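YM 10:42: Nucleoside diphosphate kinase sequence, as discussed on the call
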Amino acid sequence: MSEERTFIAVKPDGVQRGLVSDIIGRFERRGYKLVGLKLVQATKELLAQHYAEHVNKPFYPKMAQFMSSGPIVAMCWEGKNVVKQGRVMLGATNPADSAPGTIRGDFGIDLGRNVCHGSDSVESANREIALWFKPEELINWESNQAKWIYE
Ligand code: UDP
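YM 10:58: structure's back
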């Protein structure tokens, strides 16, 4: 069993559209373990750290405005290959390129309203989890389902 963790967020558009339970449910039903969950009103400072690689790009101001426009559901999920599999579940960055069955492919149309975020590497996951969660907000617990999910 793997203790790999990823940072998954439902962006303000996903919260406004009532997609929170569906997105949580997909990770739960897949078999991943929820170890952190909270509603966050993101500040511009937090977003600038989270999107450090994008802060100087032309699309950033509008994106930061949107990302701070309402609550975000911040989550930490744990399990085998959860970083890579989380990205597969989200779909391509642009919903127009996302396959049906993925979150963005099922719920999104425009790039700037792509509903969710997921860490793109184990290294980014560790950085993002530390940015969005205090250590005591992440709960280590044993799932009774593990033996029915992992061989
Ligand atoms: N984005 C945008 N306009 C662009 C490029 C990106 O609004 O021209 C947003 C988009 O919502 C994306 C986020 O910026 O999810 C971060 O971009 P990245 O390339 O890191 O994609 P992700 O890791 O979210 O799939």
